[in-house]
Amino acid sequence: MRVTNNMMAKKMLYNLNQGMERLGRLNDKLSSGKEVTLPSHDPAAVARIMRLRTTLMETEQYRDNVDDMLSWLEATDSVLGSVGEALHRVRELVIYGANDNLPDESRLALADEVDQILRGLVFTANNTHGVRHLFAGHKTTEAPFEMDVVDGEVVGVQYMGDDGKLEVEIGVGIVMDYNLPGDQVFSDIFTTLIQVRDWLRAGDCEELSTTGLAEVTKCTDDLLRWRSEIGAKVNRLEMTRERMTDFRLNVQKLLSQTEDIDLAQVVMELKMEENAYRTALASGARIIQPSLLDFLR
């Protein structure tokens, strides 16, 4: 086959273009820090990167859900801690008021204090976390408890929420509820405090020393059970968050190995391509020499 100057020039230009394309690709890697910037560069790697990024986004969302639940449970436990302190004070008042030798006016003062504790606990039970009520079930936008007041006296407390459970996904197919049913937590407490207040005002020492003290003790025990349930959930969520943190680091490592460049290697390849391109230019300069036609003009 006869090789002409035109053929040699076309081949030279083709090789130069290929070298420029490789230089451009390496420059893209250095400027972006990524192995793959277009799907056409490595379709298999792009598919793997997309899967890893999806997994990372899901893990981040699960971790955010866990953090939100932990914040809610901590707020709930704080409220129940305040309720426990109030019940402890009511217990002291019951024991003190059950004394037969206590003057009636002192017992009435104790009843007034129990009444104030009752009103305060209704306010506490209506506590919110952000804009949502803690103990309202699904009706988080409405206050769950309302006092029935007759002639300035609290005669009952109505629960306006529902028994709905707030649930959130903390893993693939793993759903966990994190709220407590307000009526089950507080209804007996409110009823007991109303009875204790009325017995104090009536001077019924026998009911105070037997039924009253027993009911307050039961309410305290029930409250401890609810707090234990919250503690168990908090422990589970903290372990889940720790596991997710480790998993996220592993996914990030895999993603970095797949899409991030090895800087030293890319720089070395770039230098090699630059040398090859310069060599191709030097070779092309020798190919494009004066031909016989230049002398026949």
Can you walk me through this structure?
The chain is mainly alpha-helical. Helix content is 71%, strand content 9%. The protein is built from seven helices and six strands, in the order αααββββββαααα. The protein has helices spanning 5-32, 43-97, 104-125, 182-202, 205-259, 263-287, 292-296, and strands at residues 128-129, 132-133, 145-150, 153-159, 167-171, 174-177. The strands form three sheets. Strands 1-2 form a two-stranded antiparallel ribbon. Strand 1 (128-129) and strand 2 (132-133) form a beta hairpin.
The tally of beta strands, per DSSP, is 6
Structure class: mainly alpha
User: How many H/I helical runs?
Assistant: 7
Radius of gyration, Cα only, in angstroms? 39 Å
The rounded distance between the terminal residues' Cα atoms is: 27 Å
Concise account of the structure shown:
This protein has 297 residues and is mainly α.
